[in-house]
Amino acid sequence: MVTFALIGCAHIHTPGFIKTLAKRQQAGEIKVKYIWDPTPARAQAAAAELGAKFIATHGRVWSDDEVKAVVICSETNLHKKLVTTAAAAGKHMFVEKPLGMGSKDSRAMANAIDQAGVLFTTGYFNRGNPMHRFIKKEIDAGSFGKITRVRGSNVHSGALGGWFDAKPADPAHDWR
Known about the structure:
Blueprint (H helix, E strand, L loop, with lengths): L1 E6 L6 H13 L3 E7 L3 H11 L2 E2 L4 H5 L3 E6 L3 H13 L3 E4 L7 H14 L3 E3 L7 H11 L36
Parallel strand pairs: 1-2, 1-4, 2-3, 4-5, 5-6
Helix pairs in contact: 4-5
């Protein structure tokens, strides 16, 4: 069993991560110990869903030897500080995209992760998509001949579905 902390609940995919973490917790594979977010209402809602402890500051996570890994779903402008702090504390990480505000921040985070020797991945889930893996295999096998151009898109109905509409009465689910 691996003990996790959820650091930040601001990303649109946070509800999906909470569902995944809850399933893995119910299966006895992991434990989510702490939830932190700069907006307490978001952290408290996530903590209630996961049966985890809401914490007002994230510093406690970095010094807790039981916590081996963190899922960082904070606002992107907080990633550099959170990732470099997690790396310095020896915590393995999943960090939602985008990693940084620019290449300078991303390089600093990559260097900290490399120096710490922790496991890390970011939320570019399409790399593991079975359809994309199949296409890559077929390209490598030469099934499509010489490829001179590729175009693709990955879209969702978030804007039309109101995902990003302001929700002042529901700050835990206001992704704007």
